[in-house]
Structures are given as C-alpha cells and as structure tokens.
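Deliverable D4.2, example record:
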Amino acid sequence: MPSPHDRIPITPALQLTEVLPVYLCYYLMAVLTVQSNTLQYKLALLPVGLVLAFRAATKYDMAAGNPDQKFQNFGHCLGMTTVTMRIVIWTFLTKPLQRTKPSGSVYRDALNLMCNSRGVGWNWGMKPSHFPIETRPTYSKRAFLYATVLRLIKIIFLYDAFNYTVRACAPSGVGTPSGGSIFDPTLPPFQRYALSSFIAVTYCAVFYYAIEMAYYFATVVGLLIPGLDQQPSDWPTLSQSPWLSTSLADYWGRRWHQGNRDMFTSLSYPFKILFGRAGLVLGAFFWSAVLHDLGIWGLGAGTNFSQTGGFFLLMGVGVLVETHWAKITGKEVGGIFGWVWTMAWMVLGGNILVDGWMKTGLGGGEVLPPAAQPVTLLMRYFAPAVSI
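Output generated by the structure prediction step:
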C-alpha cells in the first residue's frame, strides 16, 4: 500500500476529476449488470473501475489535513473498497440482476442497484421475511417520513451520549485524533480490563448508532428527492436490537445490519467450493476484515489486521463453534445462556477491535457539527467541571 502521508488534500476540483469518475464507472457497471449479454463490456470496464477506485482511495486526503475529520478518510476508503468488491461481483454474473417491479428504465434501475446493498425489491439479497418487523407507519410516505425523522433525532441523542461517555472516561489519547490504547497501564489488571471492556461496549454502541444515523438520514433524503420514486418499502428498518442476540449467528446473521451480507457471501463462494460451509462463513468474515482494515488505513496510521482482522475472524470461528455445538447436542445455542455466551464473545472481541481502532484515532472524529451534539452541549452547560 502507498504511504497515507503522501496523500494530496482533496479540493472540489479534485472531487470532480478524481472521485466522481469512480462513481460514474460504478453506475455504468450497474447499467451493464441489469442487462443481458454484457459480459465482454463488463470485463473491459472492470480494470478501469479498479484503477480509478484505488487511485481515489490512496491518493487523496478527504479530511484535507483536518485531524477532526480523519473519519472521512475511513468512510472514503470503505466506500472505494465497497465499490471495488461490488463491481468485481457484478462483472462475473452470467445473468442480469432484476427488480421485482422494474421502473421501465434501465438507467433508473441501475441507479437503484448501485445504492441498494440489501437487495430490497430485487431478485437477489435478503428475503423480505428476513427484514426486521417495521414499526413505522407505511400507509403514507408523509407518515413514514415523519416517523423516520423522529427516529433519527433519537439516534442522534443516543450517538452523542455514548460518544461523550467514551471520551469522558477513557485513558489519555482515546477519543482523540492522535489516538491511544483503551488499556490504561496505570490501573491494576482488574480495573484496567473492566474499564477497557466498558469502553469497548460503549464504543460499539457509538459505531452502531453512527451506522443507524447515516442510514436514516439517507432514508429521509431518498424519500424527499423528486424523481426517484422512493417508497417506504424501499427503506426497511436497518437492524434488530443486536444487544438481544442469543447467539453469534443470530447477532451477525439477523440482528446486525445486513448491508454487506450479499457482498461478503458472494465473494466467498470460491471458499465454499473448497471448504464447504466453513469456508463460506470464514470467507465472509475475512472479507469484512479486509473492508474494515482498508478503512483503518485511511486514517493515516497504516493497517491493523491483527486486531481488526482478528476480531472478524474470531467471530467467524465463534459461529462455527455454535454450528458444531448444535451437531453434537442437537440443540442450537439460544436462551439466556446463549445471550451470555454471545455477549462474552462480543466483549472479548470488542476489546481487541476497539483498542486497535482507538489507537489509530478513529474515535476522535467529529461526525456531528458542534451545534448538533445535544448531549455534549448539555453536559458542557450543566457540568462544565467534567465536560470534555
């Protein structure tokens, strides 16, 4: 990988000449993917898309030198890697992808495809029965939009509350752009790991609500933009209270957002051919590790596969252990003991993952503008002595 320190600060002009072409190529590949007999064109376009995405991801600093905006490089590298993975998958499809209710325009269907990660309304991806139960009113777009805005406001409060908590109680450097370890060497072992576990769990909540915030903000924008013909059914609920999971399979296969599930499993079919279901499971977690670790590279401190990749591969091993347990005992992991098992696994893995991420400075980004941080503003007003 190139050195992240050699990147050029992004400008509006560079956005147009270097980043926009990636998404135009992505869109063109989507246009070809919804049509028949386009394999030769996709093969010709693939190397162009790969080169453009790699160049955009590694050559330009989306934070433009601002440490508080380092997270934008994390998101940018995630986006470029996602584009790369999807166009590779689409290139080698032998049949076109189809919407269950085509719009009548190849170009509109292609736009929906490139923005659709779960296969909502398509002949691929998640089955409708696997989506979370919808609690927002779907009888009208206005009512659905109103409920989504209320949900988004609640998520912003929760995100800021958890983010404030991490920064208020973490060791030096944690939650700042410069980074730091969640393991405080000045504390005795029990207190050290109790604090690191609390930070790990709390930051997992931060990350969870950051994803939720982005999704529901996109929901509002998608429903408001005229001409897209978006309906409430195009924006089902994202996650299903993952903290209630009673197994790792339940956590990763149903309750956590399934936005990358199809992408990771599609890339893992070669592993499935070689190693069966175990190859498919570990392959999916491997590609998740690759995606997130390349995002970490964007923060400027290099990759950290031992911790980022280690976490996701550990989760894959845990899922396979559950499968083996079910074969031996005839009972699937579940119930209260399944919840304890799942949370113990997540806390252990969370210590590994969050420590790696915090050392790179991921927790120091300001996702929300200062004026839109309700809990932080309240704490600074009512408790200035403990404010951060």
